[in-house]
UniProtKB/TrEMBL annotation:
Transmembrane segments: none annotated. InterPro entries: S-Me-THD-like_C (IPR048350), S-Me-THD_C_sf (IPR024071), S-Me-THD_N (IPR010318), S-Me-THD_N_sf (IPR027479). SUPFAM superfamilies: CV3147-like. It comes from the Bacteria. It comes from Candidatus Fukatsuia symbiotica. Residues 8-163 form the S-Me-THD N-terminal domain. This is DUF917 domain-containing protein. It holds the Pfam family S-Me-THD_N.
Length: 364
């Protein structure tokens, strides 16, 4: 059992930005909400899955919609609580604990707020190990765990409940409702048992996000190279150094979609690069050479500060270092690649593990 304090939350927010692969919503907003919840409710308890009773009901919460919209439409805090109450009513069971659906962006922080408001613990597990653009893209889905019932609530506390036999259909229905709710909404979904979490979730990810944040702070304080430090911690590779020359993005179908273009700098001077995204960065390439694809992570770091750059913060002229980070092994299975690999997004290429795409000389 661990009681999260202000410093822990600050570190989780930083780590969540690194693992977000550019998406998941702005963690700064989630951090402020979590800090306010900590001040208002006194404590936020983080438990391991093993500390829960076998019959405990644990539920994920988070946001859905285009990241650009969620950046502009701030929540009031009641949305996810209302969604959780609807799940309880439907199942006729009390929620024992809350967990994040993904360990990236605001969706790593918002469950802290929900747990504090409900007076229940937070569980150190998530269902992606990063952020993904669609709600069926979870390791729970790979393990045949149902996303239903799913409760969706907007800022005006309009509510709807979805019950389907297929998680992909659940995603499509929720996305359609989200569009009618103004482009962003809050969910409670994937009600599971501790055994489900152990078998099909990704354990210890909130603690890992905290460790990443602590590592970055220590590197800054000691003047260490943040990029090299993160690459070592995450088993990552430096893909390229560059400056943003153009950003082409738009909100389509409830997602922020686009391409960001780079001119190479430093050792990559004279080269050009591009990253395709749908809320999250999904494909990085230079000319005709693919450097990294989903489900592996692509993380943009500000060259000067080491701060992760999310898709809604892409701007002309920013100098970046791009890291490729291997995904959790559950995503590297045939089923994982089918659900969240490049083929799903119609990129027309096969998934090849990151470390096979780059040479050892590109490791930081």
């Amino acid at each position: 059992m661990n009681y999260l304090n202000k410093e822990n939350i600050e570190h989780i927010a930083v780590g969540a930005s690194v693992l977000a692969s550019g998406g998941g919503g702005d963690p700064h907003i989630g951090k402020l909400m979590a800090l306010n919840a900590l001040k208002q409710y006194g404590s936020i308890t983080l438990l391991s899955v093993d500390e829960l009773e076998p019959d405990a009901l644990i539920v994920s919460t988070g946001t859905i919609g285009a990241t650009m919209v969620s950046f502009e439409k701030l929540a009031n805090g009641e949305e996810s609580v209302t969604a959780c109450r609807l799940i309880e009513k439907y199942l006729n069971r009390k929620i024992s604990a809350i967990y994040p659906i993904e360990i990236g962006g605001i969706n790593s922080l918002w469950p802290l707020v929900t747990a504090a408001r409900l007076g229940v613990p937070l569980v150190d597990v998530d269902a992606m190990g990063r952020a993904f653009p669609e709600y069926h893209m979870t390791t729970l889905s790979l393990g045949t765990v149902s996303a239903s019932p799913l409760a969706i609530v907007d800022a005006k506390l309009n509510i709807s409940l979805i019950q389907t036999q297929d998680n992909h259909i659940t995603e499509k229905l929720a996305r359609s409702l989200c569009a009618e709710m103004g482009g962003t909404a809050f969910l409670a979904a994937y009600p599971i048992s501790p055994n489900d979490a152990k078998k099909s979730g990704i354990l210890g990810t909130l603690s890992f996000a905290q460790q990443i944040g602590e590592t970055i702070e220590r590197a800054r304080n000691t003047k260490a190279n943040i990029v090299q430090t993160l690459a070592a911690l995450l088993r990552g590779f430096v893909l390229f150094h560059g400056k943003i020359t153009k950003v082409d993005q738009r909100t389509v179908g409830g997602f922020t979609r686009g391409v960001v273009y780079f001119a190479g700098t430093d050792k990559d001077n004279g080269k050009t690069f591009e990253i395709f995204f749908q809320n999250e960065y999904l494909l990085a390439r230079s000319a005709e050479r693919t450097l990294c694809t989903t489900p592996d992570l692509i993380t943009l770091l500000d060259e000067e500060t080491g701060t992760p750059i999310l898709t809604e913060r892409l701007r002309y002229g920013i100098r970046v270092v791009v890291l490729g980070i291997p995904a959790n092994e559950k995503w590297r299975t045939a089923r994982g690649i089918e659900v969240a690999g490049p083929g799903y997004f119609n990129y027309g290429i096969d998934y090849i593990p990151l470390e096979e795409r780059v040479t050892s000389s590109t490791r930081a």
